[in-house]
Write a structure and sequence with these properties.
2 domains, three-stranded antiparallel β-sheet, two-stranded antiparallel ribbon, 5 strands, GRF-type domain-containing protein
């Protein structure tokens, strides 16, 4: 069926009998089939009833009426509009995702800087605590030394 897709809609061996049905090249009444795959999906056509077990190449599209064509064109236009709208929304979402990614990266950098600053503050606090202990020990030693001197002078 794929090989027949590009053929003309007027088969050279086609004829029409008195009942209005088409005859294929091999003389049989043609059958109506529907395209199931490809870009013409859903379209109907006349073909040989013996296909694919025959060499008969009869093929003729069944064209819809004008109002059906207009309806289909309108439907296609509506679908195209919906697709275009969704593509715009997709682009906007992609831009929003990029902005959020940049913001996330910035916040992660800021978080790392805060962690580093916290570590430095913690180290300073530990050093201050040591200095306080050392100062307390020095003060205690100086009081003991002062008391010893006062007792010695008396």
């Amino acid at each position: 069926m794929e090989s027949r897709k590009g053929q003309s809609s007027t088969g050279s061996g086609a004829s029409q009998n008195s009942r209005g049905t088409l005859k294929c090249e091999c003389g049989n009444d043609s059958v109506v089939r529907t395209v199931k795959h490809g870009p013409n999906i859903g379209m109907k056509f006349h073909g040989c009833p013996l296909w694919p077990r025959t060499t008969c190449q009869f093929f003729r599209w069944i064209l819809p009426e004008n109002n059906q064509i207009e309806e289909l064109q309108c439907t296609i236009s509506e679908k195209d509009y919906v697709i275009a709208k969704l593509e715009v929304e997709q682009r906007l979402m992609a831009e929003k995702i990029k902005k959020l990614q940049v913001k996330k990266d910035s916040l992660e950098e800021e978080n790392q800087e805060i962690k580093i600053e916290f570590r430095h503050t913690r180290i300073e606090l530990m050093n201050t605590s040591r200095n306080e202990k050392n100062f307390s020990m020095a003060l205690l030693c100086s009081w003991v030394f002062f008391c010893i001197i006062i007792m010695y002078l008396k």
